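[scheduler] slot 2 assigned
[scheduler] job type: sequence-to-structure, two independent chains
[scheduler] chain ordering preserved from manifest
[runner] begin chain α
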Amino acid sequence: MRNVLFALRASMYLLRADEGGRLQPAFSGYRPGLYIGPRQTDCAIYRDPDPVLPLGQSVDVQITLLHPEALGDALCVEATFVLKEGSRLVGRGVVTELLRA
């Protein structure tokens, strides 16, 4: 049975270059890997009304999960996650709300 969970709201922080993160800010639609513990899925991150995802600041975002079933029961409110581009850690955050279809 397919999990109906498809999106979440989160508070997220993208690492600056001097912290080992990205060199440039990302924009709405950014698609890193999202990891909760050992579980991973791809995601798309959106921010309204400002599409810029700044480095070195906490921002509230909506994250669409491309394969939510991969996270299983690890996904819940207050779950912490990390964002990666390949093997590079580029951000971290905490789930604030689960959105269902």
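[runner] end chain α
[runner] begin chain β
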Amino acid sequence: MSTTPKAATTRVFQNGNSQALRIPQSLRTDKQEFFIRKIGDVFIAYPTDDPWAPTRQAIGSFPDDFMADRNQPSWDDVTTKLPTVSEASHHISSNHHSRTWQ
């Protein structure tokens, strides 16, 4: 597991006509280019050379017994409760104002 802090405080500053986020020393990177996305007030940045790396790292951080006691229904139980395509089409066309199952 990584020893990198999970979060650090930083500041936004003006850099020419752009805003920039200072990367704290505890989160330094050798990467030079990142994709950045804003969701609400949250910024998410990930390296352009390997955008799936954070996902692989996150998945690898779960302990081996993660959700070992989960009460997962069998696939047969799930699929018997799903509507067929024709049932779903009929439901949507007859209830065009409501797309939820009852």
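[runner] end chain β
[qc] chain β: Residues 12-60 form one domain.
[scheduler] slot 2 released
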